[in-house]
Specification:
Length: 276
């Protein structure tokens, strides 16, 4: 498939990426340029006076190591002027680095269309996270050409098992069903990934079996205690990519955010080279 003519939003030109990945092109190009699978989470805590400066500082110090940024909408909405702060933060991210707005959206299509306008047209994000519980129509409005949708499949929080590990009579778990539905959607839209937590390596392996090619956004490393080595072993694709390893508090709260990002970037790449 390499070198085929692209007719997607990226434009009509010869491209080395497999055709089905074109709509994730910004991400794949950034991963390849930065040699990074690290996603810097932006969950800004602290007072309104200092937070804007800290956001600028964290972005500037970590950009070299960032494959993507993931601002969490809740941490912005909980502040006076939070939407404008979010918009400015997204605008401060250097060109070429994708920003995934972690809003965990999920409503009927008519409403989802408005969330999509907010995320993409108001905020300027390149991708979003979406909750699939309401079905396909909660997901599809976000799958605009050139954008990325990461759908919650197996989340990192411990109580996730109460719903996501419910066994289906036909075999497998509810999280497997979500992953399967998303794989079908990705075959049509080419820009649907999954959220798979780093805290359940067995589930990561299952998700990778169901979705051998899709990108996974992976929270749970750092403050939540996920096992980096087990996560990479279970979830990396055959090409050594396919995972975006997120860290939020462990970078935001570090005295030197740049050093914290560099350490994690290096750990990820050391493990990738061992596993390659
Ligand atoms: O399954 C999920 C989905 C999303 N999150 C979000 O990721 C970050 C994790 O923050 P840390 O400080 O690195 O633990 C946060 O924004 C969560 O809302 C998740 O943790 N698990």
């Amino acid at each position: 498939m390499a070198g085929t003519r692209c007719i997607c939003a990226a434009g009509r030109r010869v491209c080395k990426l497999p055709t089905r990945n074109h709509l994730m092109e910004k991400l794949t190009q950034r991963v390849s340029k930065s040699h990074s699978l690290l996603c810097i989470g932006l969950d800004p805590t602290g007072n309104d006076q200092s937070v804007a400066a800290r956001l600028r500082e964290v972005v500037a110090q970590t950009a070299e190591y960032a494959a993507a940024y993931k601002p969490n909408l809740a941490f912005f909405l909980s502040r006076e002027g939070g939407v404008e702060l979010l918009r400015q933060t997204v605008a401060s991210v250097p060109d070429g680095i994708p920003v995934i707005l972690d809003g965990k959206f999920g409503d009927i299509a008519n409403t989802a269309e408005h969330y999509a306008r907010f995320a993409y047209d108001v905020i300027g994000a390149d991708g979003v996270t979406v909750n699939p519980y309401m079905g396909d129509d909660a997901i599809v409005p976000f799958a605009r050409p050139g954008k990325m949708v990461f759908v919650l499949a197996k989340t990192s929080n411990k109580p996730a098992h109460s719903l996501q590990d419910v066994a289906l009579t036909r075999g497998g778990y509810l999280s497997d069903l979500a992953a399967g539905v998303c794989r079908k959607l990705d075959e049509e839209h080419h820009n649907i990934g999954l959220v798979v937590g780093a805290t359940h390596a067995d589930a990561m392996a299952r998700m990778r079996e169901i979705s051998p090619e899709q990108w996974f956004l992976v929270p749970g490393i750092g403050a939540q205690g996920g096992d980096l080595q087990a996560t990479l072993r279970a979830g990396l694709r055959a090409d050594g990519a396919g995972l975006l390893i997120n860290a939020s508090r462990s970078i935001w709260q570090a005295a030197d955010a740049g050093a914290a990002a560099r350490d994690l970037f290096q750990q990820i790449n050391e493990q990738r080279s061992v596993l390659a």
